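FAQ: What does the model actually see?

It sees only this:
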Amino acid sequence: MDTLLTAEIAAKTPRFRRRSSTFVDAIHDLPERVEMAPAQLYSTESGRLFHSGKIAIATVGLPARGKTHISVALARYLRWLGVKTRVFHLGDYRRATVGPGQDIPEDYFFINGPPTRTMGVCYPALFETDEISGALASASSVLLRQKILRKCREDIYHFFDHENGQIAIYDAVNPLAAGRRSLAKEFSKHDVKMINAGERLTINNCTFGYLSHRIVFYLLNLHIKSRHTYFARAGTSREEDSYKTDAVLSEQGIEYAKNMTETLIMHREEERQALIARGGPATPLKTLTVWTSTRRRTVETAQFFYEKGYRVRQRSQMSQLNPGVCEKMSERRIRAEFPEEVAKHEADPYHHRYPRAESYHDLAVRLEPIILELEREQNDLLIIAHESVLRVLYGYLMACNATDIPALSFPRNEIIEIIPASYNNEASRITIPNLPQDMIPPSPEDLQIPVPPSGVVTPMNGLGTPQTGAGTPGIRLGSPSENATPFEPGLGTQLLVERALRG
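And it is asked to produce this:
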């Protein structure tokens, strides 16, 4: 039993009733209130951590070189640690200012004419935009660029001065040397040069603090190559409710492992054939690597992949959440024997731990090395683990908040596929056919919140981008797949009540 009583708590939460960020990649979601991040170790009155003050990061590079991908990935990691981070995409400001359905001037990206000062600041020199042509821009285009740059700069300062922001990432081309020198003079004394997305990293003036070193360490593990990440539950074991026994797979669990293996291999080949049919290259499939914990049932679930020649790695950090004294105990017995602990859990299901047990926060901290290695992995990756581990890793990739993570549901008849992209991650579901019905439900006391249905693309209101305009994409949930479970508030609580009555 890895989580208790979360359905009732989540169903009563106003934030949950309004919208659950578990449906989308919420990296661009503006948080409505101050709350602890999933892997945050402590909080401060100012909201700034690690004694690091304010940090502004400006990207430099030609278009389509991975600047947005790196900016969003870095923001995802820092926010996971609890660092208040916001990405300011200059392209979003441009689209919002120009307006929906409107085209920018043809000379918008041309080189500036003479610099113009506004409010005492030379904006073309301070925040150069995507000027990559050799021609000169007209006066109207220069003024439009200045307007966009001024709004972006004002938002960055407002984030630092009025929202207790700690790290602002300015995502733009910044092609001109004069503009980069102005940025360095305005914001920074340090220079980190990444060449070819991690092939080489040069750091000047490396006497900065802990958080800056964490950023550099993360960048050393990052890449921008496309790859898919799959999540699958382990098969059922002979003693499903026992944590200490570490039982082997049951006959039903072995059949599930075989079925899941065949389903994923077939799905990958179908995706390849569909790409070729759309005119793509007839290249071989990217190598698939399989990660499991050291628990027997996850290792045995991956056995069929191993027999087919796939590389399988066991990671001790991916062991399931330890239930402590609550192992094999019914909810009624837990309420009777630990009423004070139940009250604490109802107040905070993410951070509370039962006696001799782990909390989800403990699990998130334990999984940080896995997260860094996940970012470093360049092959397609299948993670076979207990549902508690999948919740935390999914929460990281889809930028879920700590409140939602204990309530995520991963039915055993589905493989979750996550495709990292530059601006946001996309999630879909792969149905495993012909499974017995009693294997499909998730852990018995979990709230029924599905992950996004197949085909969902998940941009949210831009984090640090304008509130209106074409540059602020909204949620596009798309059409749910035939097997998708629609979200209904209160459904999880109703199912729990029905189970309790039957028990």
